[in-house]
Amino acid sequence: MEEISTFEIHEPLDMHLHLRDGDMLSLVGPLTSQTFSGALIMPNLVPPITTKEALLAYKERINEACYKDKFEPLVTLFFKNDYTYEFLNDIKDQIIGIKLYPAGVTTNSETGVSSMDIEVLRPTLESMSKLGIPLCIHGETNGFVMDREKEFMPIYESLAVAFPKLKIIMEHITTKDAIELLDKYDNLYATVTMHHLLITLDDVAGGMLKPHLFCKPIAKRPEDRTALLSAALKAHPKLMFGSDSAPHPKHKKESCGCAAGVFTSPIALQVLTQLFEKHGCLDNLNKFISLNAQKIYNLNLAKKTIKLIKKDFVVPTAYEYKNESVIPMYAGEIISWSIMSIN
Ligand SMILES: NC(=O)N[C@@H](CC(=O)O)C(=O)O
Ligand SMILES: [Zn+2]
Ligand SMILES: [Zn+2]
């Protein structure tokens, strides 16, 4: 049989992305917007995006930094308990969803919600449900680091039951428990990163410590990775690709007190193609990387085709702009697929 040597991805979408701001935005914005058709942009800036003015201004800065012709920044608001129905009604057409962070569980989440008590959250979530605004959640408790996501499962369940019309997206899932929950509730969906399909805690801390693979939620056990990978490879219809590409300056990663986040945007399409090819599942890659998200979020995007070729791609050792330097996953390593053309 002749070996496949090229592969096309249409309208790739990254449904969980950190673009940051300032020089970092100028550095990473082009890297995503060149190859992706759209991305769901996280609101955890300092301070987080909580007003219409801040949202629109951020969207404008993103458009300035990005190749904006064929790239749609799908912006989000940082969840607050005190958003009124009127405020949400006014902003709903500008956002794709609202992102909820329990306070303190991850980067820039200090002003997140201090309680996941449903009665406390009810007024805002009822308004979102009525207005059809999806709820994206960083689902971790503040328990033992390996158990934080698992411990959050009952919270996802009670939210799914209490607000059956609210679309709830479990962001960057890392456990087989989360995969199992997907099939239990109609209104639960999930994103999964590329790195959680590839690594376990062993890759982060089993040998020499790898700060560039350190992220929240932390990579888990082999059985978790297997469950995530098998759902992604079969393009489970409620699972979407969300890179959670989370750039931090090199000095904040290679430091005592390493910031959480893995930077993967510029290598995501190549690595995912390599991974799906290795498992004989290339036929499902367009669903995982675009079609599932288009259906879940009712998206209609400009046409964009990325042609990849089976040819070695040496991952740059760093991406730099002015004083910013970011180290990508697989820095200096070789991936067997490269981007050939973008149309
Ligand atoms: N994933 C991470 O480890 N970090 C993200 C925040 C997040 O997505 O939780 C970041 O903003 O750096
Ligand atoms: Zn998160
Ligand atoms: Zn994230």
Give a count of the beta strands, DSSP E runs of length 2 or more: 15
Average pLDDT score = 97
Task: Tell me the count of domains.
Answer: 1
Helix content: 25-40%
Rounded to the nearest angstrom, the radius of gyration is: 19 Å
Oligomeric composition of the shown chains? single chain
Strand order of the largest sheet: 2-3-4-5-6-7-8-9
What CATH architecture do you see? Alpha-Beta Barrel
Q: At the first level of CATH, what is the class? A: Alpha Beta
Bound molecule kinds, no repeats? N-carbamoyl-L-aspartate, zinc ion
What's the CATH topology label? TIM Barrel
Q: Strand-residue fraction?
A: 15-25%
Description:
The protein contains twelve helices and 15 strands. The strands form four sheets. It has an eight-stranded parallel β-sheet. A three-stranded antiparallel β-sheet has the order 1-10-15. Strands 11-14 form a two-stranded antiparallel sheet. It has a single domain, classed as Alpha-Beta Barrel (TIM Barrel). It has helices spanning 22-33, 52-65, 85-91, 118-131, 148-162, 176-182, 195-198, 201-206, 222-233, 250-253, 268-278, 285-297; strands spanning 6-10, 13-17, 38-41, 72-78, 97-100, 135-137, 168-170, 188-192, 239-241, 305-309, 313-314, 319-321, 324-326, 334-335, 338-342. The mean pLDDT is 97. With 343 residues, the protein is an alpha/beta fold. One of its GO terms (cellular component) is cytosol. Zn(2+) 1 binds at residues 16, 18, 99, 244. Homodimer. Its EC number is 3.5.2.3.
